[in-house]
Amino acid sequence: MLEKFRFLTAGESHGKCLMAIIEGLPSGLEIDLEFINSELKRRQQGYGRGGRMRIESDCVEITSGVRFGKTLGSPVTLVIYNKDFENWQKIMSSRAEDETDEKSFTAYRPGHADYAGSVKYNQKDLRNILERSSARKTAIEVAVGSVAKLLLKHYGISWSSDIIQIGDGKTEEEFHSEIDKAKEAGDTLGGKFQVCFNNLPVGLGSHVHWDRALDGKIAQAVMSIPAVKSVSFGSGEDAYKIPGSQFHDEMFLKDGKVNRKTNNAGGVEGGMTNGEALVVKAVMKPIPTLKKSLNTVDSSNMTETTAHFERSDTCAVEACSVVAEARIACVLANEMMLNFPCDYI
Question: Is the pLDDT of residue 54 over 70?
Fold first, then answer.
């Protein structure tokens, strides 16, 4: 898969920090630190968030690749320090002499990476799986996505996201009521959200190879967000209900340019942007960390038990939509750099 804008992240949920290295940014891009931190704050907000959000106040530190507010063309390093680490220093220590079983657990949590991850990486202490599979790592991904957004903004591209449904609720008042009921019952809720990007050029992505199709890249980026279980474009999730004569977006001429009255394709045809708004919808499952314990198996003695509870949210759909914005922004930033390569701006 071709990549121009790329990044790696590292860090554990209760470790010292989360960090990322971004490569491929042109020099001269203005980096608005206040904007990045405001995006991090957006991720922490939303009705139904839990105790961790009251502990952390995420702010990014830029440690390389930017001087006097502009990129240098070299790799950019971002760091977010975990405030809660002060309570976990020995538990999350990298030194062999600090080994402890404090906060260790062996009961698989249904819906999490615990079981498959422990088998794959031969880990007895499920803490070793939880710490990296936790959605806490999406904080640094939002920071990276915020940098990608600054690049897209330079090209006049804009974005937005909206919550479509949470549980059975379809209005903000109903969202809150549904979340309150779930919290009282020790349960959790998922929901559906939509992300839009506007003013994209025609032709991002490609039809010539399967791994260059833009919708495929975006689907992978959004689908791999913790708890996301389905991704669609435009009216794609209802496409089976609609005959082709009504589903496909007819083309008309307006001022000598192609114009459409509908956008059922969600701005993507043949794996490429078609000039309409990019519309991505996703469904987040209920968070699988519940106070209402689920039946499971304890890996230490292979007996049935109830699942371990780790501090969590009741609902994080709004936060998930912010993460999805960031992930999509990274895909689009890469496509812009591939289609309009430049070393400086």
Answer: no
For residues 171-183, one letter each, b for 16 or more C-beta atoms within 10 angstroms of the residue's C-beta and e for the rest, the string is eeeebeebbeebb
Instruction: Write the burial class of residue 294 (CB in 10 Å: 0-12 exposed, 13-18 middle, 19+ buried).
Output: middle
- Whole-angstrom distance, CA of residue 77 vs CA of residue 92: 23
CA distances for 292 relative to 129, 183, 283, 307, angstroms: 22, 10, 22, 9
Band of pLDDT at residue 312, cut at 50, 70 and 90 = confident
Among residues 234, 221, 193, the alpha carbon closest in space to that of 334 is found at 221
Q: Is the dihedral of CA 305, 311, 316, 319 positive or negative?
A: negative
User: For residue 254, which amino acid is it?
Assistant: K
By the 10 Å C-beta count (0-12 exposed, 13-18 middle, 19+ buried), 260 is classed as: middle
Q: Could you count the other beta carbons within 10 Å of the beta carbon of residue 78? A: 25
* Confidence (pLDDT) at 56: 67
Q: What is the pLDDT of residue 38?
A: 97
Residue 217 in tokens? 């890249």
Asked if 77 contacts 35 with a C-beta cutoff of 8 angstroms, the reply is no
Write 184-189 long-range contacts (CB < 8 A, 24+): 185/292, 186/290, 186/291, 186/292, 187/286, 187/290, 187/291, 187/292, 187/314, 188/286, 188/287, 188/288, 188/289, 188/290, 188/312, 188/313, 188/314, 188/315, 189/48, 189/286, 189/314, 189/315, 189/317
